[in-house]
C-alpha cells in the first residue's frame, strides 16, 4: 500500500498516491531535477538558485536558456545587466546606478557611459557646462573648455587666421622652462618638425588608392590624403604631461589640455602646471601671423 511519510497518509493505489503528490500543498516537485520540496518557497528558491533552471521569479516563468532569460529581464524588468540584478522599478534601477561605483552614470540625463573618462567628457560638454570660454580674438566663438578653444585655433577655424603651426611656435617661445613641452623633441625656431607641412601629389597613386608615404595607409582621393597629411598625425609629440606617474605625450596642445582637464593623472593639482597653463592660455590673444 503506497504511503506518504511526509503527510502520514496511506493510499489504496498508486494513482491515488500520485494525485495526492500533484495536488497537496506539502509537495512541490521540480520535475526536471526530480526533487520534492515541502513548500512552494523552497521550490521557487531552487529554481532561482540552480544553474539548471532559467527562471524569472517575478513572472513565475521558465525560459529555454540563459540568453532568453537575460533578454526577458532587459525587456520586461528594471534590470542592471552588469550586476545581474532586477529592481522593483526604474526609480530603483536609477538609484542603483547613481550610488554604485561600478557604473558611470549621469543622473540628470539618465545615461550610462562605458568609462569614467567618457562620463567626464559628457559632464564637461555643453550639455552641462556653459560656453563661457571666449575666443581671445573676438571672432564671436565661445567654448565650454580651454581645450576646445585651443582646438578651435589649431584647426584654423578662427577668423584671425591662427593655426596649429602658429600655436606650436608660440608655445616654443613661451614655455622656456619646458613645463609642458619636451625639449628633446623641440627645435627652437620656425624650422622645427612641428612646422613641417606634408603635401602629396598624383604620384602617391599606387594603383588602388592614394598612399601616405609616412604610414602607408591608402585613401580614395588625393584631397583626403592631403587632409590626412595636414593633420597632426605625423607631427612630433612635443607636448608632455608632467604628472608624477604619467609622462603621456601629445602632438597637439589641445590634446594635452584635454588630458589635464580630464583629471586622469591628477597633474592639474600641481601649481606649476596650473600657473603655466593659465598664463599660456591667458595670453593666446597675443598670437600674431
Automatic annotation (TrEMBL):
Signal peptide feature range: none
Subcellular location: Nucleus
Domain C2H2-type: 104-133
InterPro entries named in the record: C2H2-ZF_domain, Znf_C2H2_jaz, Znf_C2H2_sf, Znf_C2H2_type
Lineage of the species this protein comes from: Eukaryota, Fungi, Dikarya, Basidiomycota, Agaricomycotina
Lipid metabolism in keyword set: no
Alphabetic keyword roster: DNA-binding, Metal-binding, Nucleus, Repeat, Transcription, Transcription regulation, Zinc, Zinc-finger
GO cellular component terms, semicolon-separated: nucleus
Transmembrane segment boundaries: none
Native source species: Galerina marginata (strain CBS 339.88)
Protein's UniProt name: C2H2-type domain-containing protein
